[in-house]
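User: tokens in, sequence out, please.
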């Protein structure tokens, strides 16, 4: 992994703060003792419950969801919001702790070339979380499909990152060195130089909050950072830029990642 331009003491403080919001979700299928696991994070918490964000694959053909928190406690989970347009599933746990847990703070600005870290469970059975550092390699993975002459749906909201990748990391939170959630790991391609991709939170946090509020008006998500407007709303200027991109594509050839063309 690339070096991080911060001292170990700073990284230790970040880890101590953010790990309180990170969880490991163990799932059991129909085979006794059969187990799978993934990494998630707390997005909202109050005295009696916590909402956990995970990748949608965690609930496929599974029964029995158990959330392992960083303080060593385990709580049974149920599905609160089955699936969103970005592939996230929200779980809910009931708590008897008497006080709220620490939730993540979503970054509202567009991702830049910057350093990042991921705290994730990589062994299963709650053997401890791993702190992994990396960088944002490509802030925008905007690409155009030459055959359709259209921008690949969702490509603009993704960024490429340098970090180890396994199936269990899908859905894990990606944090900047301010401790803000800048994205979630969404996919990786072992056949293409092991590229890893994440979805920028600023593109979907407002939609997620609206869906949650529709189920319970008391729910709110913590958001920080410079406010930007990266969402799907298309302006006249943007349409002109996209047409220019497509024109360039016709002249240059195959599927292009526009961010790599600069």
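Assistant: Sequence out:
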């Amino acid at each position: 992994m690339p070096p991080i331009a911060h001292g170990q003491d700073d990284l230790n403080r970040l880890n101590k703060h953010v790990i309180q919001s990170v969880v490991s979700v163990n799932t059991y299928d129909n085979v006794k003792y059969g187990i799978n696991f993934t990494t998630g994070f707390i997005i909202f918490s109050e005295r009696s419950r916590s909402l956990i964000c995970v990748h949608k694959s965690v609930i496929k053909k599974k029964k029995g969801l158990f959330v392992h928190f960083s303080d060593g406690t385990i709580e049974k989970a149920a599905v609160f919001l089955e699936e969103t347009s970005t592939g996230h599933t929200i779980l809910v746990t009931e708590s008897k702790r008497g006080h709220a847990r620490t939730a993540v703070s979503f970054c509202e600005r567009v991702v830049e070339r910057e350093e990042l870290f991921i705290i994730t469970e990589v062994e299963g059975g709650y053997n401890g979380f791993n702190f992994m550092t990396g960088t944002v390699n490509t802030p925008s993975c905007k690409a155009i499909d030459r055959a359709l002459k259209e921008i690949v749906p969702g490509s603009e909201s993704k960024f490429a990152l340098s970090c180890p990748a396994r199936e269990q990391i899908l859905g894990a939170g990606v944090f900047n060195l301010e401790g803000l959630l800048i994205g979630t790991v969404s996919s990786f391609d072992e056949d293409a130089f092991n590229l890893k991709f994440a979805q920028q939170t600023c593109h979907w946090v407002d939609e997620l909050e609206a869906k949650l509020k529709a189920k319970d008006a008391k729910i709110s998500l913590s958001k920080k950072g410079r406010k930007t407007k990266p969402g799907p709303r298309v302006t006249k200027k943007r349409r002109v830029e996209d047409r220019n991109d497509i024109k360039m594509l016709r002249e240059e050839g195959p599927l292009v990642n526009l961010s790599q063309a600069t």
